[in-house]
Description:
single chain; 165 residues
Amino acid sequence: MSFLRRRSATPAGPDFDVLAMDPGDWPGNLGAGLLPAPDGSCQGVFLRYDLFGGRGPAMIIGNLPEGSPAREVAEGEVPFEVAQLLQALENDEEVVVTGAEDMPVMQGDNLLIVRRLKLSETRISCVQFDRSDKVLVTIAAWDRPITDDLYALLKPLPAELFQQG
């Protein structure tokens, strides 16, 4: 899968490509967060896409590499990205995962097996899939269904977006 590749030079940021929508393709505000480990390595990146004029994101896309503690959630608990979405919306309602369904989705010529999570808060849509480099991508959206059209917009973002300095 050509869009799932490791970069040869490591920037001061994540050591993997971040699969998300290009900020230029999104009409609202974009925010990004890095999950640092105590040793300074990057344990994940999440991007917040805001269409609500600063009142909270419409979507969060997370990229968590293998071994990231944010990937480890107990059965029934929501993924990190859903928790971040609820926090950004200042929604303190308890939300749990009530089920999951695997479904095949084509992204160009590539087949993804997407896990669609069912949540107790039905206004949240959430899907997850594993990239070939063992990075878990999670998409959580508020009050918007996640359709197959979204996968066509996903691509690696340029490393420059995450360089510090």
